[in-house]
Structure of Receptor-like serine/threonine-protein kinase:
Amino acid sequence: MALKLPYIISFMLLLIFPFSATAQTYRNITLGSSLIANGNNSSWVSPSGDFAFGFQQIVTGGYLLAIWFDKIPEKTIIWSANGDSLAQEGSKIQLNTNGNFVLSDPKDQQIWAPSFARTGVAYASMLDTGNFVLVRNNSSLPLWQSFGEPTDTILPTQVLSQGTTLVARYAEANYSGGRFTINMQNDGNLVFYTTYFPFDGQNSDYWSTDTIGSGFQVIFNQSGAIYLARSNGTVLYSISSNSISGNDVYQRAILEHDGVLRQYVYPKSANSAGGRPMKWSVLSFIPSNICKSINQKIGPGLCGYNSYCVLGNDQRPTCECPSGYTFFDPNDNTSGCKPTFVPQNCGEELHETDLFEFAEMMNTDWPSNDREAYQPVSEDWCREVCLNDCFCSFAIFSNQNCWPKNYPVYNGRIDSGFAGKALIKIRKDNSTKKSENSGPKKKGDQTTLIITGSVLLGSSVFLNLLLLLSVFLGIFHFSNRRRKTVQPFPVMPGINLRSFSYKELEKATNGFKEELGRGAFSTVYKGVLNYEDPQAVAVKRLDRMVREGETEFKAEVSSIGKTNHKNLAQLVGYCNEGLHRLLVYEFMSNGSLATFLFEDPRPNWYQRIKIAFGTARGIFYLHEECSSPIIHCDIKPQNVLLDDLFTARISDFGLAKLLNRNQTRTTTAIRGTKGYVAPEWFKNMAITAKVDVYSFGVLLLELICCRKNFELNENCEDEEILVDWAWDCYKDGKLELLVKNDEEALGDMKRVEKFVMVAIWCIQEDPSLRPTMKKVTQMLEGAVEVSGPPDPSSFISSI
């Protein structure tokens, strides 16, 4: 049978590439050989001495198993095995006599091993190409090679086959996985991606060759050319076409921590430098402007939240904070920026508008996360809109276009080609008191009003005006009553949402007799709508509502009514009559999750899994998939209802849009319920969808353990808070304590561990570390791997 051409080419490449024992000299590393991590930088060196494999000390007591250029002073690392978990002093890499190749710590616990069946290795070798190979018995072909599992760097003669990925390190001296990857995809396209940092996985692409169906592999040849080849070996896309004598310089191409793939050269000697300095020099790089390339819709991007990117003269990006902001971490300019002032108070009726002003930044844009888009408007109008919106901290104005921004903003950049400006809302330096206009009237003003009123009352003109006004009000009242009589409570246009009269709902609830539940701002009653087929409903009477007009209330109800998801409680209709504001929902026969979860008998493990999935999907829909994204602000078991089949149905998901902005569930000026409230409510930070992620994390732990967040646990007498106890049990490897006496859960400990890890990621104090609800759903369902979470309380509390 004839071989296909791609396989013939791949076989020929195997024959000619320098990892073949017949193609170059090598020094065998025999079975039983080992290296110890200590201050001596012990290593195995290639025959020419150009490359070395061994331990490099990165921080005091922390070692990286790596490959590096050994003849240059910088000892530049081009491959590493354990960037996410540095080895302690005394750790060992050993080629065991049984053929295993293992990196272990001083207690002989495995840290890393190559991904292959670790048997049959005859020897190892550090080659002059920079490739470290493990060779099987009676073969010159490698069983495993570092070229096949690159980290962030490729070298001449190296090939990136389909399915191969480069991962940028987090920072220049931090070798853990960072924010960017390059993927030679199986579909033939070479794509640069941002990641869901700090999680693995591709987020948004920012550069690609657009060669779907055509690309075969990336080749870096010894002449310095880097190109995407077709299956027949011909050049499909030139990534770098530099022509260099491979004998005179060292070469490498690296995906750096800023997301740029740069090709470097280093003279091997002063004679070969040709006027170039004896250091790494950049030959080429892509993309050409990383600041403008990244436009992801989720995540902090290159520079972090509220920061902006500036491209320097050396074409390298730097991250800066706008006026009034400073870096979260002064030692990391990609950490994002926080305000140095107290943000605008959304709890005040006038929102302190007189205490804020705008700083201007020309040619600066944050293109993502628009609250609204207005056109054509003036700059003054744009300023006024943002000033009067307490949730607007930034606005972009350009060519009569105004884009107020949701907080936080991301993907900011200074771009000379952008003919506009950024308006950054900051607190005035001396703005410690309220506006004089918001306080009581001055005595002089009162006197003026009294004098003016006296003059009017003493004139016949005033009496005529009063008569006309009375007639007008009478006509308006009559016509309004007539209109209501002729058109009584129709179905809201565009959606199947009925407008009820107050008397209808009073009758349906038998005078609001059977109470189902009560909250700080509403009471829920059971009712029956007497149609041809009587329908049971839950009628929520809102007690503390925004004093909105009929049009505004209907607009908000319409937005809620357009939601449609199997994990949301369906809104049937509403009442907006006089001072009465009521919402009518479908009735849930199995009540709330709180009743189901915390009362005997305990629901079985698989029911709880189903409820966790459903709740996560419902919140994900609210955040990202419904027509008008909604932050719930009060995720808790009482707001998760269960239908006839015990399917989770989130309720109250639209009330955040209808309540007063200073409405609270507790005595603090926040929304939510004690125990489920995200820490940023207390830190003067802007509220994002991550507050719901935090609340879901607490609820998920309650589902796992079948206990309330605040409850003394007999196994851990010092722990009264579930989230703290869960972290301690996870950290100490005692997760079985969380599901003690639950045989079903104890028989499914792998899933229990995954769910606990997801919950701990959700309850991180730093909102930027929490995953999105889309990511949470993927992790719960197994579509995305879950990495080990950090201590959730490690967030700097001085924000």
In short: The chain has five domains: 18-148, 150-269, 308-432, 491-586, 593-781. The CA atoms of residues 665 and 673 lie 6 Å apart.
